[in-house]
Design a protein that fits this description.
2 domains; globular; Neuraminidase; five-stranded mixed sheet
Length: 439
């Protein structure tokens, strides 16, 4: 079921020359409205219920021994401690980590990004997937028992790659923002209380937006957007007016071909900051926010081995945000521990299954320590690394996912107070749900 409506394209005229939007989604009706808006620009230089009938069985076999240690050495220019994963025990102080065999739900074609959020205010987690082959997003409303309704699709821009959510017009309903790689736009879909959405409006950004996130960057109580633009090597900041509209405000160089970014308060000043991973530069760039919508590049950290996706959380329980980044060049995760002032120390590196294109962090075994999970597109699995609470992680545990798992998220999909995992399966256009049997 594909919902199609007229597409509105909002082109923002900037002080600098920007590419025009030459076409909208292939799933649109003939009528198109163009709105032109002028804004000032600051530039800072620096360098888819359809389930596959798979019977839920018990736990997936774990491939790692609880006593196995793995060490990765590195010879890079930034400080690095060669770190050994101690293994410890898979039980830890919480419960023994276990996931049911995945149940799959259909989405649109080739989804590269999924998020979990309660769209229709029923207290159950729903899923939104960005489908880059048919230029849509799929909305799967959850029943609260780990299953979902048949997905509904909404047209967005060309080749949507990333999706985020928030209340952009302050009406109490969840809205969506989608980064469209091929026509260099962000689609904003304003939501209704029943989990449906209005026609998307597009905002022009720099070339190749592969990531989008939302937050209040200028502390005015209104949600703003930021995109990380692969072809341009920068981050664009778009300030929100609280009515669901956005204006380009600033851009910041973060290295060549960045693929993702994360945000958080890295220096504990109450203002949102950014960290972006640059594949070509083999680096992480940290930008500190001033609370007015502007940012300053603080430092670049060399990680080597093609860093692509990253997450932020407190891995060593010191109250400061840390970073974990995937290095696709050697199938590992590198951990950078934050000092609380915006600086980080590169502390350790841990093996994972190959070809990981997403990473997220949370406490999966209820021991009070933050854990990591990544999808392994090359092995059709997910890798779970249990945290020890001191910034180190145990040898990864492997669980079955689907065919070419791409994006991974965590949420409580069956309301049992345990974090479950959802994985988008790129080539089968499904989402696998792995319910947590941690006991």
């Amino acid at each position: 079921m594909i919902t199609t409506r007229a597409t509105t394209v909002l082109t923002t005229t900037l002080v600098t020359t920007l590419p025009a939007v030459t076409a909208t989604s292939s799933i649109t009706t003939p009528s198109t409205t163009t709105i032109t808006e002028t804004s000032s620009t600051r530039e800072t230089s620096s360098t888819t219920l359809s389930t596959t009938t798979t019977t839920e069985t018990s736990t997936i076999t774990e491939t790692s021994s609880t006593t196995t240690s793995s060490t990765i050495s590195s010879t890079e220019s930034s400080p690095l401690l060669s770190t050994t994963s101690t293994g410890m025990t898979t039980r830890g102080f919480g419960c023994r980590i276990a996931y049911r065999y995945p149940t799959q739900f259909q989405t649109g074609l080739w989804q590269t990004s999924i998020i979990a959020v309660d769209l229709n205010k029923d207290g159950n987690q729903d899923i939104v997937a960005a489908n880059n082959l048919n230029d849509t997003v799929s909305v799967l409303l959850g029943y609260g028992n780990g299953s979902f309704r048949t997905h509904v699709q909404y047209a967005v821009g060309w080749y949507p790659y990333s999706v985020t959510s928030g209340d952009f017009n302050n009406d109490g309903s969840i809205d969506l923002a989608v980064a469209n790689v091929l026509n260099n736009t962000v689609s904003v879909l304003l939501g209704y209380d029943n989990g449906s959405f209005n026609t998307h409006v597009q905002y022009v950004v720099d070339q190749g937006p592969e990531g989008v996130t939302s937050g209040d960057f200028n502390n005015d109580g209104k949600l703003d957007l930021a995109t990380v633009n692969n072809a341009k090597g920068n981050i664009n900041v778009l300030l929100g007016d609280g009515n669901g509209k956005f204006a380009r405000y600033a851009q910041y160089f973060v290295g060549l071909f960045p693929e993702s970014m994360t945000m958080g308060d890295f220096n504990n000043d109450g203002k949102l900051d950014f960290a972006a991973a640059s594949t070509v530069n083999k680096s992480i760039t940290v930008l500190l926010g001033h609370g007015d919508g502007t940012f300053t590049v603080n430092r670049m950290y060399m990680t080597n081995w093609l860093p692509n996706f990253l997450t932020s959380n407190d891995f060593n329980n010191d109250g400061n945000l840390d970073l974990a980044v995937i290095n696709n060049g050697n199938n590992s995760i590198k951990v950078l521990l934050g000092s609380g002032n915006g600086n980080f120390n590169i502390e350790g590196e841990y093996l994972i299954d190959p070809y990981a294109y997403s990473i997220t962090s949370s406490d999966f075994n209820n021991d009070g320590n933050i854990d990591l999970v990544t999808p392994g597109a090359g092995s059709f699995t997910i890798s779970v690394l249990l945290g020890n609470g001191n910034g180190t992680f145990q040898t990864y545990l492997r669980f079955s996912a689907g065919y070419v798992p791409y994006s991974v998220i965590t949420a409580d999909f069956n309301n049992d107070q345990k974090l479950d995992i959802a994985v988008s399966n790129f080539y089968t256009s499904t989402v696998s749900i792995l319910l947590n049997n941690c006991a």
